[in-house]
Amino acid sequence: MMSLITSILPNVLILLTFINALISLIGEERVMNFSRRLTRFRLLRYTLLPVMALFFLTNPMCYTMGKFVEEDEKPAFVDACFSFAHPITGLFPHANSAELFVWTGIAAGITTLGKSTTPLAVRYLLVGIIVIFIRGNVTEFITKQLMKRSKNQNERS
Fold this sequence. Notes:
Elements: H1 2-26, H2 28-39, H3 42-57, H4 74-84, H5 100-112, H6 118-156
Helix pairs in contact: 3-4, 3-6, 4-6
Protein name: PTS sorbitol transporter subunit IIC
InterPro entries: PTS_IID_sorb
Pfam families: EII-GUT (PF03608)
């Protein structure tokens, strides 16, 4: 527990401060306009944005990119990031070091057989992108249905 407080927590706080400072320097309106244009398309919202967030910001900072999606799309974006945190590890271990032990176990078995891990890592990444797209869309649909239901119940009350 103490190692979490002394190592991960300061890193997360520094990265949060850095991202907020960067957004302030660029201008929040510019960043929001860019992200609105990017996330207008479902394909980019649930594939490119989570992939970029995990690659550049790593886990757990990638979830801060949810700040730039609409309110009813945030649960789906976070679900896409959660779902992609493991598949990206095969090619880009820096993205989610907590999952690295799973990939190294798989890689050890494959290298014992005398095979390369790269084809599996590429397939794993591609399937991960397909899965996050599907999960993002399903979660967005469910979220919007629940928000409609909640709104209707509040109007009746």
